[in-house]
Design goal:
The chain is an all-alpha fold. Helix content is 85%, strand content 0%. The chain is built from nine helices and no strands.
């Protein structure tokens, strides 16, 4: 995640300065920010371990219920605990991701990066939410398009091969497998797209803040500036 965020930040700030941004980002991560990456991973691992313990508790509660040893209070507590831990996990993952993005953009510590990211999002809720929503719509539509395209292409390829089609009991099973394979590929691709999109949004917010602070022009593309000015009153 850090390597992709750092590469996107390099593209945004100075696309012509560094060649091989992935290798440069890998070197920066290993040389300067390995501790921040490890801390973010540790925090997420701790939350996942707590969730695992809660899942084990829920399993034993269901087992006791099957043995006619039921407790409404215990069952309600375990379900509430699982719900709260799921919310905490999403919040921690969101903060860790945006914190590492700030580490990649500004070369700050992980805790400082989380604080900066939270401040930027709190100061620009409508703009960040709108861009995030647009990115989510693009990702969902892209996944559906890739999955459907894989199924359609696979269907016509099977129909074109008459010998293979004659041996199949049902063409629906391989077409379904094509759709699943297309969804898996699109999931991997759009995960990268989503992270890069979030990084570019953060780069823009940081760039806008620094431009106002130091009195320099913004290096953002013109469409992003127009979008910012459109929702400027929401700030």
């Amino acid at each position: 995640g850090f390597i992709l965020s750092s590469s996107a930040a390099i593209w945004y700030k100075a696309p012509s300065v560094f060649s091989f941004p992935l290798l440069k980002s890998l070197w920066w991560g290993m040389r300067y920010h390995l501790g921040s990456i490890a801390l973010a991973s540790l925090i997420l691992a701790i939350v996942w371990i707590i969730q695992l313990v809660a899942a084990v508790l829920a399993y034993y509660v269901r087992k006791l219920k099957a043995s006619e040893v039921d407790s409404c209070i215990t069952g309600c507590f375990v379900r509430c605990l699982g719900c709260c831990l799921a919310c905490v996990e999403r919040l921690v993952q969101f903060l860790c991701q945006n914190g590492l993005i700030q580490v990649a953009i500004s070369s700050v510590s992980f805790c400082r990066g989380c604080f900066i990211a939270f401040g930027l999002i709190a100061d620009n809720p409508m703009k960040f939410g709108s861009l995030k929503g647009i990115g989510t719509v693009v990702i969902v539509v892209g996944k559906l398009f890739v999955s459907a395209s894989a199924g359609i292409i696979g269907y016509f390829l099977l129909k074109a091969n008459t010998d293979l089609s004659a041996k199949l009991y049902s063409i629906g099973v391989p077409v379904t497998l094509f759709v699943i394979e297309g969804f898996v590929v699109s999931e991997l691709f759009f995960a990268v797209f989503g992270l890069v999109a979030d990084t570019i949004v953060m780069c823009f917010l940081v760039d806008k803040e620094e431009a106002e602070k130091f009195g320099r022009p913004v290096v953002a593309p013109e469409p992003m500036l127009q979008f910012y000015e459109k929702y400027k009153k929401d700030k």
